[in-house]
Design brief:
678 residues, alpha+beta, Jelly Rolls, seven-stranded antiparallel beta sheet, five-stranded antiparallel beta sheet, 26 strands, 31% helix, 25% strand, globular
């Protein structure tokens, strides 16, 4: 994890030829990326002129004479070594540095590297103009350096072609027909031309040309990057008035086609989203929603009550299109859905009337060592559009087996046979050594020419055993079509809750949640439980005594309270909402408790008619306040002390900087006066 997204040693040339390993195939370079990691994480092109002038000032021994050159040279070198990650010795040392070892993606040290080279380039340009340095001295190292770079590319070009083909990318077989090589070379020649022009008297024109060449050089990289070709569009979301009082959810996270759930995009488009890309996700929120840092919601943790409390009204998922294939296809990623007698016993997937005559089921068992051959561990119930049901049993030893079947301690004790292996993976145990784990496949024949509306997997009444479902696919052998069942197909099977609105684009389907709670609401009662108990109550939908919970009628607090005489407040209105401010109007004859669907993060303060009131952490993670009877204006404001401290420090820094400038000017005037008097 620490060395993820580091610049590979074999890809260092992208600092000089940024698209050498491909980029965006829709651009003029015409080749998709085929290097390691993501180009977004490891790209740091600064242009040829800054590199040349940075080298000029370093090689002219100014690194010894000028402390600024020395500082920025060390910064550039140090950050360059850091961004290589485990490609150098420094990574192992830095891993033990407190604070730094909490970060990943060494490639991001390109920020410091790029800044350092830019500063050195500026210093080098000034030195080149002011000094008597000869052009031939620059060309003596620049031309050989360029020849070496090009020679390395030419020598390894066949390997580049091979690596590109492995990733399904086609690049020109003739190197100099490859724009990722010729365009940087063009700017090298233009930069050499600028060097000659700078030595003539028309320096103003030369500097303007220098700026233009640099802008076009940088644009040859930045202008053709993904922001131009994959800019996220919010046209796929049909906005309604309700979306101002609710949130959207995309279980697949920011990877959902045509919908980008990144914080900056949400701000620009004014979208309120339950999930999205968030590397700094709060621990409690992660537990509450079951969301990963990528924004993907773990389907094993998807919970309708949680979505209701967070005002998740509109859900967006990918349309599961069929794929043409001569044989049955399966998804690249596992469904990772678990069934057991003690937890979840069945799961249903909606199928869009696909006519399949085969079903493929990939799964594995845990804690199944005592099970014998021919034990029915589960059933696959295929429901057709005419409401008829066809059932296929999942048999131990035939269709599925223990995942660690070949581990030494399991193999000697397991009571059933090993089913047909679908995929194997290698694991290492400190005691048992290296062994292979497996997932298993079973293919079942179905009634042909019948439209399938749903698939239900039902676990048998066998305690302790866990069935993990990895893949499910349907296949139409006549039309050569595969339907790859996705985890999102299991989310919206309850017609009393979900309405399939319409297909907004060919890639996206929208569902509306009929049981969603508003952003602001009031319960009839408030109950006290511990934090962990509250989380369990919400997710299971039942109280510790077994009674069902109606989240519209009750709110849960981990703090003891004494809200006597409260009633449900039905006159609540979210008047306005902006970044850091929420305004609510309340009009009720008796005291009430008001819940606001907003994360109770430190820094939030609540005011009733301008007077601060206490915020209670409600329903594990939300905000709630006690509201007296009568008409009131309620305001939630984000006023973190850390922000105020930052502003104070900023102005102190500005003041110190201005004071230092004034002091320097005073010293210069003093010295000038002294010299003049002498």
């Amino acid at each position: 994890m620490f060395n993820q997204f580091s610049l590979p040693l074999k890809q260092i040339l992208i600092l000089f030829f940024p698209y050498l390993f491909g980029g965006i195939d829709q651009s003029i370079y015409g080749a998709g990326y085929f290097g390691l990691w993501s180009p977004t994480e490891i790209s740091g092109y600064v242009g040829w002129l800054p590199i040349i002038f940075a080298a000029v000032i370093v090689l002219s021994k100014q690194i010894i004479r000028n402390k600024y050159v020395l500082f920025w040279s060390i910064t550039a070198l140090f950050s360059f070594i850091l961004m290589l990650g485990d490609g150098t010795f420094l990574s192992k040392i830095m891993y033990h540095v407190p604070g730094y070892n909490l970060f990943r993606a060494p490639g991001r040290n390109l920020v410091e590297y790029s800044f350092a080279i830019s500063v050195l380039g500026a210093l080098g340009l000034k030195y080149f103009i002011d000094s008597n340095i000869k052009i031939r001295l620059v060309l003596q190292w620049l031309i050989p350096f360029t020849i070496i770079l090009v020679s390395i590319i030419l020598f390894n070009y066949n390997d580049l072609i091979k690596k590109a083909k492995e990733k399904g990318v086609i690049i020109d077989t003739f190197p100099f027909a490859n724009l990722s090589i010729t365009i940087p070379l063009l700017f090298i020649f233009l930069s050499i031309g600028i060097i000659f022009i700078l030595k003539i008297k028309a320096r103003r024109i030369a500097l303007i040309l220098c700026l233009l060449v640099l802008v076009f050089d940088l644009s040859s990289f930045g202008w053709f990057y993904e922001w131009r070709f994959f800019a996220p569009s919010i046209n796929s979301i049909q906005k309604t008035e309700d979306q101002n009082q609710s949130r959207i959810v995309a279980p697949e996270g920011f990877s959902l086609p045509a919908l980008s759930l990144r914080p900056n995009i949400n701000q620009i488009s004014n979208l309120k989203s339950i999930n999205g890309y968030n590397p700094l996700i709060l621990k409690k929120y992660k537990q509450f929603v079951g969301m990963e840092t990528s924004g993907v919601i773990d389907m094993n943790q998807w919970n309708n009550q949680v979505i209701d409390l967070l005002s998740g009204k509109f859900i967006y998922v990918s349309k599961n299109n069929s794929k043409v294939s001569n044989s049955m296809l399966f998804n690249d990623t596992s469904l990772q859905l678990n069934l057991s007698k003690d937890k979840k016993t069945n799961i249903t997937f909606n199928i869009n009337d696909f006519k399949g005559d085969q079903i493929g089921f990939v799964s594995k068992l845990s804690y199944s060592i005592p099970l014998k051959d021919n034990t029915e561990i589960a059933k696959i119930n295929i429901k057709y559009s005419d409401n008829s049901v066809e059932t296929k049993p999942i048999i131990v030893g035939k269709d599925v087996s223990e995942w660690a079947y070949d581990r030494s301690d399991v193999k000697s004790a397991v009571q059933h046979s090993r089913a047909q292996v679908f995929k194997s993976f290698t694991l290492k145990d400190s005691t048992l050594g290296i062994y292979e784990g497996h997932s298993y496949i079973s293919i079942h024949q179905l009634t042909p020419n019948k439209s399938i509306s749903s698939i239900n997997i039902e676990m048998s009444n066998i305690p302790d055993v866990n069935l993990e479902i990895d893949q499910i696919s349907l296949f139409n052998s006549k039309d050569k079509l595969s339907y790859l069942v996705a985890s999102t197909d299991s989310l919206f099977t309850d017609s009393t809750r979900w309405i399939k609105k319409d297909v907004l684009e060919s890639e996206i389907i929208q569902y509306e949640n009929k049981k969603v709670l508003p952003m602001v609401w009031s319960p009839e009662t408030v109950k006290h439980f511990e934090d962990d108990e509250i989380l369990g109550i919400i997710k299971k939908g039942v109280l510790p005594d077994g009674k069902l919970v109606d989240l519209k009628s009750v709110a849960f607090l981990s703090e003891n309270n004494n809200f006597n005489g409260i009633t449900k407040n039905t006159n609540l209105e979210l008047v306005s909402e902006s970044s850091g401010l929420r305004v609510i109007k309340s009009d009720h004859l008796t005291p009430s408790f008001v819940v606001f669907s907003n994360i109770n993060y430190p820094g939030w303060k609540a005011y009733i008619d301008g007077k601060e009131t206490k915020i209670y952490e409600t329903n594990y993670i939300l905000q709630g306040i006690y509201v007296p009877e009568g008409t009131h204006i309620i305001e939630f404001k984000f006023e973190p002390f850390s922000f105020k401290l930052g502003v104070i420090c900023f102005f102190i820094g500005i003041l110190l900087m201005l004071s230092y400038i004034v002091f320097l000017n005073y010293q210069k005037r003093k010295e000038f006066t002294k010299d003049g008097s002498n």
